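Example 3.
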Amino acid sequence: EVQLVESGGGLVQPGGSLRLSCGASGFIFSYYWMHWVRQVPGEGLVWVSRINLNGSSTDYADSVKGRFTISRDNAKNTLYLQMDSLRAEDTGVYFCARVADGYTYDHWGQGTQVTVSS
Amino acid sequence: DIVMTQSPDSLAVSLGERATINCKSSQSILYNSNNKNYLAWYQHKPGQPPKLLISWASTRESGVPDRFSGSGSGTDFTLTITSLQAEDVAFYYCQQYYDVLRTFGQGTKVEIK
């Protein structure tokens, strides 16, 4: 059974950092592109970032470019999102998602809550 | 970035009636070389991860009830739920995957009238 489990969320002050993890099981992790998507109160789902199979190619939404870094460790079957210089508007539930066919998300984690507040 | 705009923001429909959600992209998401529209629809219930309903604008995913259907091309798309059921109460999002920078619509909340 495919499972994605996020962790690492929490309460952090503006300007602080967090590192999210997404542990994968039930499939060959290195065969799939992975994305991060966040659910923002009042905004809905917002795409954050994506990474290719071996981590050599990454892309980011304009709102997080230069502050967030996506990475993966295929030996550990784990996806990461390093979030620096956090702002209040980064508050939300962060989901990792597996890309099924190069395009759509066929599996998602349950999400981890990130709250940026003083 | 491609902006996706959904309408309405929310709608209340009686059980057994039809719900229609529209999604408009700021530029065409029809790829001419393969004649495919790079659009998906997701259902999101509180406390659960989103679920893929429709890909390529009109291809229903395996296991998705046939009361869900997608249509449209180019810049204008529609998700239709015929005969709304109680379990269909959720937020619905369109998403384009034409561009590297994926974007979602703002979401539509579907409730029972």
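Chain A touches chain B at residues 35, 37, 39, 43-47, 50, 59, 61-62, 95, 100-101, 103-106, 108-111 (CB under 8 Å). Chain A has a mean pLDDT of 96.
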